[in-house]
């Protein structure tokens, strides 16, 4: 298996620190608002990575944190007139609901910043003792960026270039404009915790350093997150953690691609900002997941009505191949052809989790299932069982095919299921009465609504045609 390492800017053979086990930390959400499409991108990307690592036999310890104390949280709670706890608990519950609807498995551990204050304080104390941090006269504690010789290595930046080319907050309390805050002194009325430097709360960057090392150790295998976190957040994590422990912080850095909306950056100012809830109110969750999986995790994704339409058509092709078959898991056998497809699937997923190529293998397998349905039903069932199992690695194809194809999860169904079944009953009665013109009219009426009837010896079934 090879994984692209953001730190080295190349694909590298993946060798975990402990054979058969993978330790992975992914930066989670700051829970002051509902999760948006960019969060969905990261959730799904690392869910697929976790699923595949487990499929390959690794025991994966997947840690994804929650930032439940932050300037944005304080501001939003104040605006809402609610307590910080009430806001964060409400948003955490909503986040879990969004994940479940997108078929995202829960992480192994989900530490919260407020549950690790003692660990955060201890790491800051170590940094001060080693000369990497200092207490300012306003009660804040800052990190000395220039003290850490390797600062900038994740993003390939030089310190002087950062100072000249980036917007740096002017703070008279800092020794250097590039220094960043580790501990913020509490303002009157703010939530706070005691520390050797007075009441206050942690800065954002130190939270992840403390939580990751507490959960996974001083050095661990994989650290992931969104594309906007490489600088300064992950750069600062490296500086804090390696200065505190004297050890390599992370062996492999992974970052998911950005989400664009109609080829533009997603932004509230552009009016193209969507929460996961906004999207799932109008679209089948599995279709949205398919769209997120269909692009390589490092590539940007374009979210649009057209891209969702294509995603639904593609997913419909896969479910159509599974339709009407008793899947082959219970046979206890694997078809030789199915084994070949699994080998190809594994080969492309071993190449930096190449989901577009993995889906291409699945579509070839679906075509093989369709060819075998008429002449080799037992073989077709075995192949279909393999298709469903490969889909599960990507978090797809876990519904009953007929359920998906009927579109029961799709909003805006043209008719309810009971109305469709009533139409089918009317058509059957018309055929019994030899009123074939009426029977054809009912079929055509439903087809115009995208509801396709299928007659067989067992009776009449229906599916919702992909838009």
Notes on the structure:
- The protein has 467 residues and is of the alpha/beta class.
- 46% of the residues lie in helices and 14% in strands.
- It is built from 16 helices and 15 strands.
- The strands form 5 sheets. It has a 4-stranded parallel sheet, sandwiched between helices. It has a 4-stranded antiparallel sheet with strand order 5-6-7-8. Strands 12-11-13 form a 3-stranded mixed sheet.
- Strand 5 and strand 6 (141-143) form a beta hairpin.
- Helix 2 (71-80) crosses helix 3.
- The longest helix has 21 residues, at 355-375.
Task: Give keywords.
single chain, 467 residues, four-stranded parallel β-sheet, four-stranded antiparallel β-sheet, 16 helices, elongated
């Amino acid at each position: 298996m090879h994984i692209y390492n953001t730190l080295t800017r190349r694909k590298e053979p993946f060798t975990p620190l402990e054979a058969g086990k993978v330790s992975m930390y992914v930066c989670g959400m700051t829970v002051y608002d509902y999760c948006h499409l960019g969060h969905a991108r990261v959730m799904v990307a690392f869910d697929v990575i976790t699923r595949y690592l487990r499929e390959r036999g690794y025991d994966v310890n997947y840690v994804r944190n929650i930032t439940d104390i932050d300037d944005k949280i304080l501001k939003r709670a104040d605006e809402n007139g609610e307590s910080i706890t009430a806001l964060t608990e409400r948003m955490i519950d909503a986040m879990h609901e969004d994940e479940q609807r997108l078929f995202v498995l829960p992480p192994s551990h989900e530490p919260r910043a407020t549950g690790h204050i003692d660990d955060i304080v201890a790491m800051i104390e170590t940094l001060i003792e080693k000369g990497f941090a200092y207490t300012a006269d306003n009660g804040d504690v800052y990190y000395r960026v220039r003290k850490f010789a390797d600062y900038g290595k994740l993003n390939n930046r030089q310190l002087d270039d950062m100072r000249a080319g980036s917007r740096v907050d002017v703070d008279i309390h800092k020794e250097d404009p590039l220094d960043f805050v580790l501990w913020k002194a509490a303002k009157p009325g703010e939530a706070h915790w005691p520390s050797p430097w007075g009441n206050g709360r942690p800065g954002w960057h130190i939270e992840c350093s403390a939580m990751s090392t507490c959960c996974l150790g001083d050095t661990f295998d994989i650290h992931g997150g969104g594309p906007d976190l490489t600088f300064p957040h992950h750069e600062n994590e490296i500086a804090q953690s390696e200065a505190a422990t004297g050890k390599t912080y992370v062996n492999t850095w992974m970052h998911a691609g950005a989400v664009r909306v109609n080829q533009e950056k997603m932004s509230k100012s552009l009016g193209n900002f969507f929460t996961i809830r906004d999207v799932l109110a109008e679209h089948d969750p599995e279709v949205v997941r398919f769209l997120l999986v269909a692009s390589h995790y490092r590539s940007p994704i374009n979210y649009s009505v057209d891209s969702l339409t294509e995603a639904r058509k593609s997913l419909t092709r896969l479910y159509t191949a599974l339709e009407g078959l008793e899947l082959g898991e219970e046979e206890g056998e694997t078809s030789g052809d199915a084994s070949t497809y699994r080998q190809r699937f594994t080969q492309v997923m071993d190449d930096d989790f190449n989901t577009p190529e993995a889906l291409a293998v699945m579509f070839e397998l679906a075509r093989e299932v369709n060819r075998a349905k008429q002449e080799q039903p037992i073989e077709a069932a075995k192949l279909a069982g393999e298709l469903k199992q490969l889909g599960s690695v990507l978090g797809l194809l876990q519904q009953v095919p007929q359920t998906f194809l009927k579109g029961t999860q799709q909003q805006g169904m043209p008719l309810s299921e009971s109305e469709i079944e009533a139409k089918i009953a009317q058509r059957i009665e018309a055929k019994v009465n030899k009123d074939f013109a009426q029977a054809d009219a009912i079929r055509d009426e439903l087809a115009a609504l995208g509801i396709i009837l299928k007659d067989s010896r067992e009776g009449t079934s229906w599916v919702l045609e992909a838009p």
